[in-house]
């Protein structure tokens, strides 16, 4: 079946209405760029999930970073997106303009050069993200330990995806199917979704990020949904890998081993969602000397009480239905995290 | 007799070069006046007196790019190109430029000479005279910033303005997107590839369009904010809707790969020698071949058009009866709304 026939099918689809959540922020951005939504029949609805790492970072984490940025002889090292995420009162960007020391980098390993250049300063790397980025932080930790570097610490807000997907289904969501994350799956492998798919009877398709890959993935998911294959419980649910060039059933085994060497499973606070059991990672106790204070960052306070990020992230509200959307909350002045990142559901709806 | 002046024995700029005394004179005489030499500048009075025109275009711009020298150009060349192109976009012929230099203590004098020479050479290429200048020295770390003003003469009652854009007009883009932006970023990130900045004065291209009698409706220099921002601003000002085709956008394979890795979008990347030229449909093919035959226009393309006022898009997009929208047709046939660049995008690049 060629692409134009697939697109034709999706445009004219008249079967059972289906609501598909794309979990990963990069998918949200790719869907917008591809213009796919303009091609879909009204019976196919795509909603964005909690897979943009900066969007689900709790306010207490940002507050702690700001606090550290104001400490004498301490400098923060971060990716650019995090700079604009609101904490309970301020952002790193605002604090930087008032003199806080914040370095923007493109790779966690850049921190090592900074630390060697200024041995009298302590550098705190803001390690946020999902399974995709955690191996890079594990590598940083590995280098710090092997090279005995004394002036780097990390502040972590690391999350794992499957418990969040379970949480969404438990919270009474009406999601019919998932576009499972592509990059996360490269690390974790495709098997990690089988249990959720089985328990909640939701078909899941792992998709790539190119327009054609997304179109074919959505088509595949709709076919799975309509065939109802997932209702026949095999114990493995119904998970299909539409991204087999890079996603393997077992994932990236060495990367997972490196993560397991340094990190342990913990509870984590998700912006707008609250604390979800076993959904986070923290440095293991024997490496806690490298931690800059990540163990008790479970509080999440809304900058604006009317912020609806929680409802948006669980697919219960369209970003445009939020009372703040586009008025009080804009990409230049985000009230909630979904408006901060290019991968956030709200910024992508502007 | 010791012929070594202060400027030749010093290797870097010191505060005394900004004193207004002997060191300042030497700096001006031996670096700026030597490179920029022309009859008007050599008046060396408090202001320069020049011949005028009945209608002039004026502009001002500041340049703070880091690094000061990058593949394909430097801050000096950039300052002339940026100023000249702004003047050209209103249909004027650039004539005079002034430049204010803010030098930071510790600036390497050889580097300054190199930048000033490059500026002089670019001014000759663009056929403009540098008629006045100023130098200040501030404390700092060897940096350099340039502020310019430019004056261009306008022939007769020529008027180039976004409000002249009409339905059916075609949109020409004068060459590849993203080269400057990607070059600055790769230099900062120490990524090796063969990219060079596109910084160039578009004097020849604009002159040829008018010489051949093309009825240019509007032109814009596609700098910071990129094509997306420029088109959206024009659409709002002209109160029209536009549609461009993603597949027609000229982007080099290297920039495409670079964007893929860093998650950038070529339509929001800055350029320093690219124009959007809007012309009547019936003149568009002729205008395109003139641009393609002009210096720096070899990759020009027609990228889209101004939509008829009654065009409505409903498929998947909210029904929009208002004007001021820019749409982009994606390769899979979807349609995406193009807005201005949100937030700061990336670090300063010009």
Summary?
Chain A contains twelve helices and eleven strands. Chain A is α/β, with parallel strands linked by helices. The model of chain A has no long low-confidence stretch (mean pLDDT 88).
Plain-language structure description:
The complex is a heterodimer of chains A (350) and B (350). Chain A has 350 residues and is α/β, with parallel strands linked by helices. Chain A has helices spanning 3-12, 25-34, 59-69, 92-97, 110-117, 134-146, 161-170, 182-188, 194-200, 211-227, 253-262, 309-313, and strands at residues 18-24, 44-51, 74-78, 102-104, 122-129, 152-159, 177-180, 204-206, 239-241, 263-270, 274-283. The radius of gyration of chain A is 20 Å and the shape is globular. Chain B is of the alpha+beta class. Chain B has two domains: 5-42 and 54-152, PurM-like, N-terminal domain (60s Ribosomal Protein L30, Chain: A, 2-Layer Sandwich), CATH 3.30.1330; 162-338, PurM-like C-terminal domain (Phosphoribosyl-aminoimidazole Synthetase, Chain A, domain 2). Chain B is globular and about 65 Å long. Residues 314-318 and 346-350 of chain B have low confidence and may be disordered.
């Amino acid at each position: 079946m060629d692409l134009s026939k697939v697109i034709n099918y999706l445009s004219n689809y008249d079967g059972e209405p289906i609501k598909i959540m794309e979990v990963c922020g990069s998918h949200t951005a790719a869907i917008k760029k591809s213009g796919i939504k303009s091609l879909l029949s009204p019976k196919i609805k795509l909603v964005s999930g909690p897979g943009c790492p900066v969007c689900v970072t709790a306010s207490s984490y940002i507050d702690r970073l700001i606090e550290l940025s104001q400490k004498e002889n301490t400098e923060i090292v971060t990716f650019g997106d995090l700079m604009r995420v609101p904490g309970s009162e301020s952002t790193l960007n605002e604090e930087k303009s008032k003199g806080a020391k914040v370095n923007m980098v493109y790779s966690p390993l850049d921190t090592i050069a900074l630390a060697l250049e200024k041995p009298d300063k302590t550098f705190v790397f803001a390690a946020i993200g999902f399974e995709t980025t955690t191996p890079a932080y594990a590598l940083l930790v590995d280098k710090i330990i092997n090279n005995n570097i004394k002036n780097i610490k990390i502040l972590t807000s690391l999350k794992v995806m499957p418990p969040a997907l379970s949480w969404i289904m438990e919270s009474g969501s009406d999601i019919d199917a998932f576009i499972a994350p592509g990059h996360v799956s490269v690390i974790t492998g495709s098997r990690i979704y089988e249990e959720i798919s089985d328990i909640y009877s939701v078909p899941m398709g792992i998709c790539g990020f190119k327009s054609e890959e997304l179109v074919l993935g959505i088509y595949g998911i709709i076919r799975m949904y309509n065939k109802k294959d997932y209702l026949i419980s095999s114990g493995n649910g119904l998970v299909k890998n539409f991204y087999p060039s890079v996603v393997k059933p077992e994932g990236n085994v060495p990367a997972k081993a490196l993560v397991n060497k340094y990190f342990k499973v913990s509870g984590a606070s998700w912006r707008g969602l609250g604390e979800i059991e076993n959904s986070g990672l923290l440095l293991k106790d024997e490496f806690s000397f490298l931690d800059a204070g990540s163990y008790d960052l479970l509080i999440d306070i809304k900058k604006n009480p009317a912020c609806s990020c929680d409802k948006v992230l669980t697919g219960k509200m369209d970003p445009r239905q939020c009372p703040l959307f586009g008025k009080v909350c804009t990409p230049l002045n985000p009230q909630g995290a979904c408006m901060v990142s290019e991968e956030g559901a709200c910024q992508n709806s502007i | 007799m010791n012929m070594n002046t202060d400027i030749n024995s010093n290797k870097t700029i010191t505060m005394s070069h900004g004193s207004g005394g002997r060191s300042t004179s030497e700096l001006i005489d031996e670096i700026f006046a030597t490179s920029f030499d022309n009859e008007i500048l050599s008046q060396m009075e408090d202001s320069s007196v020049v011949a005028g025109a009945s209608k002039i275009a004026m502009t001002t711009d500041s340049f703070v790019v880091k690094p000061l020298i990058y593949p394909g150009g430097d801050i000096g060349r950039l300052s002339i190109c940026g100023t000249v192109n702004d003047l050209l976009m209103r249909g004027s012929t650039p004539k005079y430029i002034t430049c204010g230099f803010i030098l930071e203590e510790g600036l390497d004098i050889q580097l300054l000479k190199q930048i000033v020479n490059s500026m002089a050479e670019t001014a000759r290429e663009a056929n403009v005279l540098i008629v006045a200048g100023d130098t200040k020295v501030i404390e700092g770390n060897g940096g350099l910033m340039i502020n310019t003003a430019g004056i261009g003469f306008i022939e007769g009652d020529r008027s180039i303005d976004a409000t002249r854009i009409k339905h059916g007009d075609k949109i020409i883009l004068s060459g590849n997107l993203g080269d400057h932006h990607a070059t600055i970023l790769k230099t900062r990130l120490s990524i090796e590839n063969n990219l060079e900045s596109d910084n160039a004065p578009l004097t020849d291209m604009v002159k040829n369009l008018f010489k051949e009698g093309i009825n240019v409706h509007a032109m814009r220099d596609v700098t910071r904010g990129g094509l997306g921002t420029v088109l959206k601003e024009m659409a709002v000002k002209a109160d029209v809707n536009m549609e461009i085709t993603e597949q027609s956008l000229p982007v080099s394979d290297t920039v495409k790969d670079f964007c893929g890795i860093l998650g950038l979008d070529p339509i929001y990347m800055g350029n320093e020698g690219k124009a959007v030229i809007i012309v009547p449909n019936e003149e568009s093919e002729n205008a395109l071949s003139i641009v393609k035959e002009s210096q720096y226009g070899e990759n020009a393309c027609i990228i889209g058009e101004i939509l008829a006022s009654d065009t409505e898009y409903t498929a998947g997009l909210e029904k929009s009866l208002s004007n001021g929208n820019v749409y982009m047709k994606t390769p899979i046939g979807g349609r995406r709304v193009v807005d201005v660049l949100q937030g700061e995008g990336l670090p300063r690049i010009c």
